[in-house]
Amino acid sequence: MKLITVAGPPACGKTAVILKTAVELRGHAVHAGVVKFDCLATDDDERYRRHGIPVQKGLSGSICPDHYFASNIEESASWGAREELDILFTESAGLCNRCSPHIRDVAAVAVIDVLGGINAPRKVGPMLRTADYVVVTKGDIVSQAEREVFVARVRDANPRARILPVNGLSGQGAFELARLLREEAPDRADVTGSRLRYPMPGAVCSYCLGEQRIGSAHQIGNVATLDLTSAGGTP
Amino acid sequence: MNAVQDALDALCGETGVRRLTVEPGRDRRGNPEPVAPISFSAGDVVCIVGATGSGKSRLLEDIEWLAQGDTPTGRRVLVNGAAPDLSGRYSGTGRLVAQLSQNMNFVMDASVGEFLDLHAGSRGLTLDAARRGAIIDAANRLTGEALAADHQLTELSGGQSRALMIADTAMLSTSPIVLIDEIENAGIDRHQAIRLLQGEDKIVLVATHDPSLALLAPRRLVLAGGAIVDVRRRTPQEELLATRLATLDRLQERLRNDIRTGLSLDAYLSDPAVPTVPTAKENA
Fold it and tell me: Where in chain B are the domains?
């Protein structure tokens, strides 16, 4: 089984890209399934099910969704292997741009849409910078020039990655993505002992532990302070 | 820069693609595509027709991807008569096909000038004032409402936006092939737009069912069931028809301008360009 981690900002089209790719894979008799990670609620599992794609969902609730991913990926991979999947996609919640679910020696896909603005490739941190494939969506609704500028920025942020435009509505580009994953993604049914490509943020402060009160008196642990001593500098 | 990009620039830079050939593959049922290999040369205008789902976007994907028998159609695409170097397939930049379509918008929060600088910058170029001015002038030849470097993109009218997108694609994009997908007549001179793209040595593919736009192309590829089923050459009669349709287009444009500027349209009733179909009232 090949494991493929898919990450990207909210509403960039991760589910649509995975769906279209899984359907292309089925055309090549490749059986794909999905573990969908989200935070509070999702109906995406229904979308997968409607297309006959085996799916599990995990809602992280009060826990950071990326940490929740890291502590559940081992069991998710075992589930995929038990289902006898050829390919298991994990889809992350993509809430903050600081985290990245990508794992060494596991194929890593970042999805990003051109509507996020030309600075988005720099703002979306390690989930894009450490990916093997960057899928650019929604290109059909912006000008040619903006598409070109956007892709150049993606390349600046991650010169190693293969960059592919995919239209999540028509599926244009999904054929090529499916083929790359079939041909190139390494077999990894077991990730026990594997390493994340990038560490999760250093946390553990009082708010991680459920503190709700504001004020320095209530802050303990790993707390960073914003330097506000300089003048604001009005233009 | 990186090696892949250099290789791709060499492949499809301004002078790279002189001729592109599509060798036939299969339709959706697996039957052979019933046409001979089709070649496009720099400066060619070719129209693509067919219903939704007839295979237009797959044809463009095959070209974009430089298909080598490895796509669902089994087509092969040759560049300058030979199998191309495929190293640039995934670089994401310098792609072969630039696209201009109806539903495209500017989402960038920038002025026209800043936008052109950014586009040039993404290719590692610095735009001098003369080149920038030339692109804006070219856009202004396509639209009735002049735009300027300090206008905000998001405040441009539909016609101005389309004119700027076309001029920018013609003069700043490296893609040797431009697909125009059902671009609206309103606000821009499409004939002029296609001449601009041709003049910049692009291969211009026009997907449209608008007769006056379709007849600009000497060849029409007819798609059905996932295959190119026919290549029609424009006949002398169609050429004659095209000039008459162009007269109607110009009439429409004049009417639109006069309405925009608040004029009365009464005089058009006796204009020789207006078809003289008797009205029901006149018949009575």
Answer: 3-234, 235-284
